[in-house]
Amino acid sequence: MQRVLVVDDDRLVADTLTLIFDKSGFEAKAAYSADQGLECARELNPNLLLCDVTMPGRDGLTLVSDIAKEQPDCRIIMLTGFYSNLKSVREHASSLARPVGILTKPCQPEELLREAASLLGSA
């Protein structure tokens, strides 16, 4: 079973996305900060990280960099609700040595699952 870690400081968003993955046959876990996400990733060893970009404290870009170093097989989808962030998110994603999905919030569950399947299929 594929393992997914969802990291978003908005608990409703994180829990909803986790539920979507659970109902779609994944083992999914939610974390509500970048620091908690890093701890959870070390325990869960996820196949996929779904991470919000803008969070208090350490942001999602920092978390993505940490996960990319520590868990090179983990696929990544970055989420942002701010279109003004897209340029910096794309630049950051292109600096990583793996494909990274980028989605804007809100996104449809079908779109999210399609992107996840595409990334996991390229693993």
Quaternary state of the chains: single chain
Number of helices: 5
Spatial strand order of the main sheet: 2-1-3-4-5
CATH class: Alpha Beta
* Uncertain ranges: none
Written as H for each helix and E for each strand, in order along the chain, the element string is: EHEHEHEHEH
Task: Assign the structural class, choosing from mainly alpha, mainly beta, alpha/beta, alpha+beta, or little secondary structure.
Answer: alpha/beta
Q: What is the alpha-carbon Rg in Å?
A: 13 Å
Give a structural overview.
- The protein has one domain: Response regulator (Rossmann fold).
- The protein is built from 5 helices and 5 strands, in the order βαβαβαβαβα.
- The chain has helices at 11-23, 34-44, 60-70, 86-94, 109-121; strands spanning 3-7, 27-31, 48-52, 75-80, 100-104.
- Strands 2-1-3-4-5 form a 5-stranded parallel β-sheet, with helices on both faces.
- Strand 4, helix 4 and strand 5 form a beta-alpha-beta unit.
- Helix 2 packs parallel to helix 3.
- The two termini are 14 Å apart.
